[in-house]
């Protein structure tokens, strides 16, 4: 009989007449404004984020706080000058008993703003990643591995009375020429600091430059509206004979007489053993007009070291022209307020631009027309920037009285980006009339840097 009852139960279970542990149906709706205590169930429907808890009151919220929490009348008056969102929510007051506390006048307003925050302000999960700030800095090589570079003042050249505006080193690195505001041009011996030549020009000397050919040690000087080609007197008798032939003034030919208005006369200056000119063309000693239309006032110019490419820096941009094809190749966007100087790398593919706001821009000509690297180093105007001819060095000088030396390695592999590392800050000149270091240049054969300052001195920095 028991066996028969069991068989009936088994048949009823198979037919579904008897059910065990029926699954509960999940509610299809949930209360949006319900209690947050059962928040575990809400996560089944959506990624629920509980609202932030309101800030609990502190000691200043007590009905009888300490005197240090009670503001003075001056502090209460200062609250009225603040923006409404910056003012404190309430001013602490003291009451003798708990029954003396009046109703909070902003209770309804605070509750309404709280509801608006919960309703209108979305809440999202933010994953915080703990990153070490030191890991974000670029890995720079050790300065000891980048030597040699100039860092110590070795010699001073004194003799000028006014500010030294320009300096230039002879290609062999043996002599250095300087032009000053006192109207003189001086030639110094680099290793000893002895002054070898002095020319009284009579006008402010804006710029001096040596002939890039060591066989003809002549010096070009810009003073006022004239350009003087000086015979320095260096070299043997044969070299001096060639120099005098170069400085001999020729008469214009019949082919040139048709365009007499296009050139100015060359003047023989016997006082300084030089020739004086105003505009020239190297082939026929005539003026040649720039064949391009400039958009802006030219600030600085530079030639490509090996190709017939001309760089013209205006106040905003740098325009690159091909002199043979007579067309614009590229326009470099400096993103600066006013450009002050420009220098071209000896390889010719990189350019640095200095500005009057103390910023440097490094351009990679093969990469883009926008700056590859931005360097904010000086506090005042940058007066000059320069590259070293053989070492991976470049420098900048400024009116703040400092000169910065950088390591700038340019690789032959086009897949390698230039490596720029700041090396040294040279502080040796004193400011005068708001001017600091006015010019800087490297020695062509040594990692030495020359700086000219408004304090009438020239300094040599060595490694």
From TrEMBL:
<dbReference type="InterPro" id="IPR019775">
    <property type="entry name" value="WD40_repeat_CS"/>
</dbReference>
<dbReference type="Pfam" id="PF08145">
    <property type="entry name" value="BOP1NT"/>
</dbReference>
<keyword id="KW-0690">Ribosome biogenesis</keyword>
<dbReference type="GO" id="GO:0070545">
    <property type="term" value="C:PeBoW complex"/>
</dbReference>
<keyword id="KW-0853">WD repeat</keyword>
<dbReference type="Pfam" id="PF00400">
    <property type="entry name" value="WD40"/>
</dbReference>
<feature type="repeat" description="WD">
    <location>
        <begin position="157"/>
        <end position="198"/>
    </location>
</feature>
<dbReference type="InterPro" id="IPR001680">
    <property type="entry name" value="WD40_rpt"/>
</dbReference>
<protein>
    <submittedName>
        <fullName>Transducin/WD40 repeat-like superfamily protein isoform 2</fullName>
    </submittedName>
</protein>
<keyword id="KW-0539">Nucleus</keyword>
<dbReference type="InterPro" id="IPR012953">
    <property type="entry name" value="BOP1_N_dom"/>
</dbReference>
<dbReference type="InterPro" id="IPR036322">
    <property type="entry name" value="WD40_repeat_dom_sf"/>
</dbReference>
<dbReference type="InterPro" id="IPR015943">
    <property type="entry name" value="WD40/YVTN_repeat-like_dom_sf"/>
</dbReference>
<dbReference type="GO" id="GO:0030687">
    <property type="term" value="C:preribosome, large subunit precursor"/>
</dbReference>
<feature type="domain" description="BOP1 N-terminal">
    <location>
        <begin position="1"/>
        <end position="150"/>
    </location>
</feature>
<keyword id="KW-0698">rRNA processing</keyword>
<dbReference type="GO" id="GO:0043021">
    <property type="term" value="F:ribonucleoprotein complex binding"/>
</dbReference>
<dbReference type="InterPro" id="IPR028598">
    <property type="entry name" value="BOP1/Erb1"/>
</dbReference>
<keyword id="KW-0677">Repeat</keyword>
<dbReference type="GO" id="GO:0000463">
    <property type="term" value="P:maturation of LSU-rRNA from tricistronic rRNA transcript (SSU-rRNA, 5.8S rRNA, LSU-rRNA)"/>
</dbReference>
């Amino acid at each position: 009989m028991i066996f028969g009852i069991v068989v009936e139960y088994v048949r009823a279970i198979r037919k579904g007449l008897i059910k065990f542990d029926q699954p509960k149906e999940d509610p299809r709706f949930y209360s949006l404004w319900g209690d947050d205590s059962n928040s575990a169930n809400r996560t089944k429907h959506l990624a629920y984020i509980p609202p932030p808890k309101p800030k609990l009151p502190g000691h200043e919220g007590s009905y009888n706080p300490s005197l240090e929490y009670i503001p003075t009348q001056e502090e209460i008056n200062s609250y009225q000058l603040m923006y409404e969102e910056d003012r404190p929510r309430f001013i602490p007051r003291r009451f003798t008993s708990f029954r003396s506390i009046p109703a909070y006048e902003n209770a309804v307003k605070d509750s309404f703003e709280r509801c608006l925050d919960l309703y209108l302000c979305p809440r999202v999960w933010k994953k915080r990643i703990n990153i070490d700030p030191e890991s974000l800095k670029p890995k720079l090589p050790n300065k000891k591995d980048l030597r040699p570079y100039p860092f110590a003042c070795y010699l001073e050249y004194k003799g000028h009375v006014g500010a030294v505006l320009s300096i230039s080193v002879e290609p062999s690195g043996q002599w250095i020429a300087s032009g000053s505001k006192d109207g003189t041009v001086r030639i110094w011996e680099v290793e000893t600091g002895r002054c070898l030549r002095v020319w009284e020009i009579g006008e402010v000397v804006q710029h001096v430059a040596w002939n890039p050919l060591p066989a003809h040690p002549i010096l070009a000087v810009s003073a006022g509206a004239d350009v003087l080609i000086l015979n320095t007197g260096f070299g043997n008798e044969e070299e001096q004979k060639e120099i005098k032939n170069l400085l001999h003034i020729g008469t214009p030919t019949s082919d040139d007489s048709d365009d007499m208005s296009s050139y100015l006369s060359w003047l023989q200056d016997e006082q300084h053993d030089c020739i004086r000119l105003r505009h020239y063309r190297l082939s026929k000693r005539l003026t040649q007009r720039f064949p391009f239309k400039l958009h802006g006032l030219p600030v600085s110019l530079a030639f490509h070291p090996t190709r017939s490419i001309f760089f013209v820096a205006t106040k905003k941009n740098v325009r690159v022209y091909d002199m043979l094809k007579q067309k614009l190749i590229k326009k470099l966007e400096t993103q600066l307020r006013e450009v002050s100087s420009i220098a071209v790398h000896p390889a010719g593919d990189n350019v640095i631009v200095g500005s009057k706001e103390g910023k440097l821009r490094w351009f990679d000509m093969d990469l883009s027309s926008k700056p590859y690297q931005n360097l904010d180093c000086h506090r005042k105007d940058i007066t000059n920037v320069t590259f070293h001819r053989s070492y991976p060095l470049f420098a900048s000088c400024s009116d703040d009285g400092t000169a910065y030396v950088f390591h700038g390695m340019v690789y032959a592999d086009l897949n390698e980006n230039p490596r720029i590392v700041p090396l040294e800050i040279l502080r040796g000149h004193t400011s005068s009339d708001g001017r600091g270091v006015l010019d800087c240049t490297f020695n062509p054969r040594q990692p030495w840097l020359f700086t000219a300052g408004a304090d009438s001195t020239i300094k040599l920095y060595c490694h």
